[in-house]
Design a protein that fits this description.
This protein is an all-alpha fold. Helices cover 79% and strands 0% of the residues. The relative contact order is 0.16.
């Protein structure tokens, strides 16, 4: 059954991506929508299984690993200040508006704070693909978006740990902070010293594709350790990609990992987002879905865009950066799952949040396309 589902996902995602491009949108939009069509909510041809979820997780890890390989570290350093502003700005506005919305919905103080944090989350895995398609991933805007996503992830998770300690969850805030400090300090040290040494040791082995295997080992270890430290696994994969980008193996690793990723794992990731969507219980709360969807989009867009403008970007670039931060993705779904387990969200609200997360994910690529003019078009206009 899995083999047939994989064949169907690959076929449908490529066709849907092509149709999306012909309609003037990033291909990722078609891949997201076709997942809904194939999933239980419409045709029921593909069902969410544990194995499919694992394939999907590998897909998003490899996607962010590739983003790290393509990152210009010098540009990344230059955009550090702007990334900090965008990361913080993209949290503050959704946090306060989300909290106020929770109070209006008659939630408790803790529940309202949790809703604010939930709306503050960001996942740029979808945005990375749109940036790649528009040749913006290596630009100043792309570096700012990726840096802001790292900052957003750290701050939201730390704030969540702080909130859970008040909510009665078994969370030791000191341990939470310490684990993250150890992870980032260790990741920097390992990237600087151990990664080049490991590649130098492993690459010459007289076995097939030893360089690629060693790169993937580094990627998956970083992703696992990030997840263990309470940081999103995609952040660990992204750091691993940056570490390898500083070695002589960058180009060969990028070419072959990209081939592996986009041939199977990444399409499964995009499509499985739609497959996982369930609409049961949402119809009764459709008004709340619409309100929270609009708030989720506008608060992140406004907060991140104003911060980007304050950092010196043009209005178009600022709105493009804000658009890229709108998608809540798997990060918000993980936080929502914690809220459900800790009774901070009831089952109906959880279902509403899942649909809101899907909406933010689907609208992100076309919003980015509105504000980011593809780089090849910019070059052509300069020639003319």
């Amino acid at each position: 059954m899995l083999i047939l589902q994989l064949a169907l996902i690959l076929f449908a995602s490529k066709i849907a991506g092509e149709i999306s491009v012909r309609l003037g949108q990033p291909s990722v939009l078609g891949k997201l929508l076709i997942g809904i069509v194939l999933g239980p909510s419409v045709l029921g041809l593909v069902t969410e299984t544990e194995t499919l979820k694992e394939f999907s997780e590998i897909g998003v890890i490899l996607l962010m690993f590739i983003a790290g390989l393509e990152t210009d570290l010098d540009e990344f350093k230059r955009t550090g200040k702007a990334a900090s502003f965008v990361g913080v700005g993209g949290i503050m506005v959704p946090l306060f508006i989300g909290y106020g919305t929770g109070i209006v919905l008659d939630m408790s103080q803790i529940q309202a704070c949790f809703l604010g944090l939930l709306l503050s989350a960001t996942s740029v895995s979808i945005s990375v693909q749109a940036l790649k398609e528009m040749n913006y991933l290596k630009s100043r805007e792309g570096s700012t978006i990726l840096g802001a996503a790292v900052i957003d992830d750290i701050l939201v998770i730390l704030a969540l740990a702080f909130l859970m300690s008040f909510a009665g969850g078994e969370v030791n805030l000191g341990i939470v902070v310490l684990k993250k400090v150890i992870f980032f300090a260790g990741a920097i040290l390992v990237s600087w010293k151990a990664v080049p040494w490991f590649l130098k040791l492993f690459a010459p082995l007289r076995v097939t594709e030893s360089v690629i295997s060693s790169a993937l080992i580094i990627c998956f270890v970083f992703a696992y350790l990030a997840d263990y430290a309470g940081v999103a696994a995609i952040i660990g994969a992204y750091i691993a990609g940056i570490a390898i980008s500083l070695t002589d193996h960058r180009h060969v690793v990028f070419e072959k990992v990209e081939t592996i990723s986009y041939s199977i794992f990444v399409p499964v990731f995009f499509t499985s987002i739609g497959v996982a969507v369930g609409f049961s219980g949402v119809v009764e709360n459709i008004g709340l879905v619409l309100i929270l969807s609009v708030l989720a989009i506008l608060t992140k867009l406004i907060g991140a865009s104003l911060a980007a403008k304050f950092s010196g970007f043009s209005w178009n670039s600022s709105l493009g950066i804000g658009s890229a931060m709108v998608s809540r993705g798997e990060v918000a779904l993980i936080i929502a799952g914690i809220g459900l387990d800790e009774k901070l969200l009831n089952q109906d609200m959880f279902a509403v949040i899942v649909v809101v997360v899907l909406v933010t994910t689907i609208v992100t690529p076309p919003m980015m396309k509105m504000f980011f003019k593809p780089q090849n078009e910019i070059r052509q206009s300069k020639v003319v």
